[in-house]
Amino acid sequence: MPGRNHLFVPGPTTVPDSILDAMHVPMEDHRAPDFPNLVKPLLEDLKKIFQTATGQCFIFPATGTAGWEVALANTLSPGDKVLSFRFGHFSHLWIDLARRIGLNVQFEQVPWGEGVPLDRLEALLQADHRHEIKAVLICHNETATGVTSDLAGVRKAIDAAQHPALFFVDGVSSIASIDFRMDAWRVDVALSGSQKGFMLPAGLALLCFSEKALEMRHTARCARCFLDIQDQINANKDGYFPYTPSTPLLHGLRHSLDRLLEEGLDNVFARHYRLAEGVRRAVKAWELKLCARDAKWYSNTVSAIMVPEGFTARDVMHIAYHRYNLSLGAGLSEVAGKLFRIGHLGDLNEISLVSALAGAEMSMRDVGIPVAAGSGVAAACEYWRETAAPVPVR
Question: Where in the chain do CATH 3.90.1150.10 domains reside?
Fold first, then answer.
């Protein structure tokens, strides 16, 4: 098929050419005396992305799933109770992992399309008079449903309940794209992955631990070896890793961080909001609905778009891929076939994103979904035109 594939799943995201170039390096000695010149600045600049002055960052040659285990195994012990909310595929998987490593998971079922119910969270913590709950696990941005939860509200709920539980955040599809404040919200462990807002291939689990969470490693009894942060601490202080790292990915991360910091985090967050709002205007023009049930839940990194009754999203995705070379995200588990997802995070702008809207629109019309030709594209483009930064007239 001529032309390139247009990748609009919510991860992996498109890797910019400049980052691909940065990763195209010969293999090098990761024990070399000058290797710390690469590693130490990476660990320091990651703190700027997590927005922390006091936390400690870690880079594991793994994915976000391993990040879940790093967070739990280095702070907790088998039998410890943790509290979570199940409102999508990825929040479900973190719950499952916690159970499989021996934790006692109390989870609350939430309708898919909603986020963390703050009043319910506060009530559950207030009822835990003996403070048996050791940690609260929150999926910041539920990629399966396009829902973002209010982390500042979570912190307020924990404080209102006067509960000492650790505060863990899965920020795989939010950190580096949606506002995240490690220190301001007193998050104890946050984790992300390289393949989304960091604009890299999959292969790095990026974490940050608070001082409180770091101390928990001394009492944690969950089994760990490869994912033990103590090994990282011992090696990282000198600018090395306890085992062989992916050096090309580290060079790519260096360029990724440079790009993010040069654009400025506030500008990165504003860009993601503006692009996402254009997609939401398109969905409204198509007279369709998002899986997210209320505007307060809308994600700025992925939109999960419900197809009308009598249609399956699988057909839309099939046509999009085979006829238009467009990759859209699938509905997962409980919403399989009911929706398709447009990922709008990482390295993109209006013109790149409009290709996803045009392809989705054509694919829906091809399978018989009655959307007006050009309606979504026009709605998004007009919004982007109206909100574009002014350019001096020559």
Answer: 6-12+264-387
d(CA 16, CA 163): 43
Contact 110, 116 (CB under 8 A): yes
pLDDT single digits (tens) 316-348: 999 999 999 999 999 999 999 999 999 999 999
The three-state secondary structure class of 80 is coil
Model pTM score = 0.97
Say if CB 59 and CB 250 are below 8 A apart. yes
- Tell me yes or no: is domain 6-12+264-387 CATH 3.90.1150.10: yes
β-bridge pairing 133-139 and 81-86: parallel
Q: Are strands 166-170 and 189-193 parallel, antiparallel or unpaired?
A: parallel
Residue with tokens 């159970």: 99
Round to whole Å and give the CA distance between 213 and 221.
14
CA distance 343 to 300: 9
- Domain 18-262 in this protein, CATH class: alpha beta
Phi then psi for residue 236, to 5 deg, are -65, -30
- CA 132, 90, 241 angle in degrees (round to 5)? 80
